[in-house]
Specification:
It is a single chain. The chain is α+β, with helices and mostly antiparallel strands. Helices cover 26% and strands 34% of the residues. It contains 3 helices and 7 strands. Strands 1, 2, 3, 4, 5, 6 and 7 form a 7-stranded mixed sheet that branches. Helix 1 packs across helix 2. The two termini are 16 Å apart.
């Protein structure tokens, strides 16, 4: 029987998998579960990942692990691209599994007010993409 992954190790595994999957460019990862949210801006260049100025990886792992404690949560990765466009990927995270969302699933989430269920207008320059598989260890 496999021992459960500690919350900090779970967060670290998720962050490294996202850093690798994101590719070069400026990105923002948002993890949400209930009222708890962790937001991580980062920039990838080649094989290097840079966090925002003054942000330490240990603090990012801590904040992310607090968000991931408990039940299922959602992860969104937004990438700022050329000419003012942004690509968005998403995953459902439950335990040690990250289930990729399709572009359609993510579009429905982004296009609906979570309080009222009312449709929201499309954000200019934003497009949804099928999320890749994240190899969480």
């Amino acid at each position: 029987m496999k021992a459960p992954t500690l919350p900090t190790q779970r967060a670290e595994n998720l962050l490294y998998a996202l850093f690798d999957a994101a590719g070069d460019g400026c990105h923002v990862m948002t993890a949400s579960a209930g009222v708890s949210t962790a937001v991580v801006p980062f920039h990838n260049t080649g094989d290097r990942t840079y966090l925002g100025h003054g942000i330490e990886l240990a603090d990012v792992v801590e904040a992310t692990s607090l968000t991931l404690v408990g039940g299922p949560c959602g992860i969104v990765l937004r990438t700022n691209e050329e000419e003012g466009t942004s690509r968005v990927w998403g995953w459902r995270l439950d335990g040690d599994a990250a289930t990729p969302l399709t572009a359609g699933e993510l579009c429905r989430v982004y296009s609906t007010d979570w309080l009222t269920g009312a449709p929201l207008p499309q954000e200019p320059g934003l497009y949804y993409d099928d999320a890749p598989h994240l190899p969480l260890i």
